[in-house]
Amino acid sequence: MMPRFxxxxxxxxxxxxxxxxxxxxxQAIHNATDKQYQDWVGSxxxxxxxxxxxxxxxxxxxxxxxxxxxxxxxxxxxxxxDLTSEAYQKEFNQRGADGFRLISISxxxxxxxxxxxxxxxxxGYQGAWxxxxxxxxxxxxxxxxxxxxxxxxxxxxxxxxxxNSHRIASIFAADQYKTFEARLGLTPQAYQxxxxxxxxxxxxxxxxxxxxxENGVRFALIMVLDKSKPWAAKHGLSAxxxxxxxxxxxKQGYWVTDVSGYQDGKEHDYACVFTKPNLVSWPLPATGTxxxxxxxxxxxxxxxxxxxxxxxxxxAVMRNGKIVFSRGYGYVDHEANTLCGPSTPMRIxxxxxxxxxxxxxxxxxxxxxxxxxxxxxxPYLGITAxxxxxxxxxxxxxxxxxxxxxxxxxxxx
Length: 413
Prior knowledge:
The chain is α+β, with helices and mostly antiparallel strands. It is 24% helix and 39% strand.
């Protein structure tokens, strides 16, 4: 007779933004008309892409769009343009309430009024973020100081004409880059100096925007301390020069990650940033002790993660109360070459629900504490209303089975 044993598997995977994609890629357009941009946005979903960046510049019949899209995640996204200030604010409020976050915004002038183009994504981001528009330079600086004090950094800064002056729009978020430099209102000469000074110290540009002001073209520049990936950047390029530069860099495996169009006199110029993505290759590196007799688990884990383009995960196998297999796969931070270990901590989120359910059913099966599926939870736990308050009597009708089934236990009405 075969010995009786209990086999327990614990699987934790950390999905990356490339989830469910077999090959990462990007698209970009520039010098596009309003209709060309709209048609391009409309084609992205079918191609498995989502927009990541939009820049609108020029005016009247010369209004032009530059934009970027990629396939690094499969969450929801929304792209809008030609929004008045009121329409943009309404859209911003609604998208925020629906769990979307703003990742790109561009202000521009159309029919003598300010319009906005913007992109929101729903990627499950749990960190803090904030966004502003219609600010003066001084108002932006006050927001900047407060957000940085609260642990956020600017991830996007842009400017645009508003009447006889200009205004600033910005996005702040908490991410892995804690050391950064950010400026706005830079002349071309000051922009070049900041670029040279900080790139020599190991910083790379992540946002570069040229914009019109009452005193001529000015630049906003954000640079982060990061030596982990190759990059290149230029500004003052004509449309033809930008196209040639784009072709040269993409042939070398670079992606355009930021592009800004701006009007310098009668001409449209471009500022751009290219980075070389550090793409994950398969099979993923594995950490922990390999167990020859259980190599099938390694194979299954590699296939599971490859099929879903998950770059970080752990797997543990327990037999008769003893861990017999514990491995980590892939990278916690691929760009920094930080491997995932067997005991790398992860946010397990809703994985805790089936574990809690298993423990609960075990208690019921073993009759611990006379607990059953029909046990009424509130009386069982001895929960009472706070002093001086009363509790809805229907709370006493909530059973263990209601909790298992994710039901409220009573109708709100």
